Amino acid sequence: MIRYRARPGRETRTKSPRWTASRIRFRSILKVFVGLLSALVFVAAASGHGDRNEYLALLDEKIEANPDSVPHLLDRAATHRRLGHFEDSLADLDRVFALSPDNHQVHYLRGLTHLRSGSLAEAEASLLHYLKSEPESAAGHTALAETLGGQGRHVAAAEQYTLAIAAQPVAVPDHYLARAKAYRAAGAHHLGLAIEGLNEGMSSIGPLLTMQGLAIEIELERGNHAGAIARIDDVLAKAPRKESWLVDKGRILASIGRQADALDAFRLAKAAMNSLPPRLRSTPAMTELRETISDHLDKDTSP
To answer: Is 173 strand, coil or helix?
Structure first.
């Protein structure tokens, strides 16, 4: 039996059988836990959430064992694409097409690979082929929109985003934002369509700040200062943090000569900022905002 050497002033203690058994159980549980953790790490890697090169090696082994496995070839093609191995990705997709000529997903994945590699004409051809068979594919229309936008065909890209929105069962904010940006990139004559599209998105999803912020920028670009201010007022009515929006409003008002109203907005912005906890007031963004407010208020020569 193991005995501890007695410390001065302490009684000699002996490990009991119960204590020893508990320690053994603890070690057994710890070994099981480590084993489970290792298994989870392996599964994560095999699911594409771990090291992609390790996952690629795993797919290589599976395909070597079963060269005609379409799911594994598609998976490896997608992994090659994510790693930037575009030729290898296309080679796997060619093998899939030879094995399964009716697999329409091949054309979609070819389109994505060409898109990521910068081969936009080839991407467009593949995605158009795919959409002939899958006209309701939101992902297909989105990829084609990105391809067209990369070629400077912004109106056509916006139209593809519209088709993606129609095909999507649940509204996706990014599609509305991307469509508005495409119309914006198409030039001044299309800014109205950009605004209409954002309004449609906010009517469907709600007044998201990302959409409202982009709408304010576009309103200013087309010279609709009143519309931009109205949108800021709508945000101010609901936003818990108002200081940056008040500064934006002050800037717009100052730009159109409404100095008194601009000063009121900057004073409200200063008061909103001063009400924040010190830790928030000291951030770089807030410091810059404070300087902007001070610059405008220092110009106030009213008594």
So the answer is: helix
